[in-house]
Amino acid sequence: MTQKNVLEDITVCDFSWVGAGPMATKYLADFGARVIKVESTTHLDIGRMSVPFKDNIIDPDRSAFFLHSNTSKLSVTLNIRHPKGVDIAKKIIKKSDIVMESFTPGVITKLGFGYDELKKIKPDIIMASSSIYGQTGPKKNFSGFGNAGAAISGHYLMTGWPDRDPVTPGIAYADVVQPLFTVAALLSALDYRNKTGKGQYIDTTQVETMLQFISPAVLDYFTNGRQQTRMGNRSSYASPHGVFPCKGDDRWCAIAVFTEEEWKNLCKTMKEPQWTGDKKFIDLPSRKKNETELERLIGQWTINYELSELITLLQEAGVPSGPVQDASDLVDKDGQLQARQSFVKLSHPVIGECNHPVPPVKLSKSPADVKTSPCLGEHNEYVFTQFLGISDEEYVELLNEGIFE
Asked: pTM here?
């Protein structure tokens, strides 16, 4: 019998906020885990107040950033600074398999939910913490977001043009990279618990995660004492390697030539203009030495083509290339993404109908089942009365006391 959701028996108490923590639990939720996001009306998740907003109306339930980072979850509002709020949170934890948090190290312990305390509530609990530097070491109390994690790990020094300042991507890059490692660790911990009956604590850091993606530069420094820095779109091992203009407004084609065969294929595709036979471009060292001129000449050729036409021409000739796509291309025009159902249209109670990206992995026996993100406190009554079993009378009393804020 095919199981619909591979994680349908897993419950997660999610204290995390903003990006890195919520993105990790989002993937668990998309694959069927019951993820209960514990929020507060008085200390809003910063993600709920992050741009862009639907119709530019600033509202906790209209953030596209939050929408993407919290699909398929349940949301409850709870005052965990009140003793009764702490007691209710502990009831959620007692029925959970995983607890996720992403506060500055030490904060969750001060709130009464450190790992040592959680083990008293549920001995086999799995807890994961996401932070910039981790829970130990002299810089453990450093607080920040994904852009800080990417900068500290050396990425921004390598991003941009040699004659300009470092630049950042349009997103907090580490916030979308670290969750992939957190998910792998959580699934490993679940497997370990299934085999041993024991839970464990997971300490994930943005800086150490991001270091994995600049390993060649780090090894280059270890072995050669060489400090790699900004190269724009260029590569030490390929030429041409960059983006080239096409017909239209801000339309570009990426070309990356690593071998001499690929270079010959490109020359043939361009119908071998006279300059392609110049000794300045005869091999990779020569092309690297004269790269500015080479890129100018190739750009004079690519600008004569529509993007789709050029990509077809290059791909058929065996030249590694691809279109530089915008949001419209991705959502409305990319037949491959459409064929693989990479987006699903869901209806949100406030935002309305909109596309949601689905997890980029396809499980044949237990596919993801993405649901829209929750409104603030949308599932209070369900979680507190049905999941925890609080009576209607007690629920109303707690509500009047401000426990569900």
From this structure: 0.94
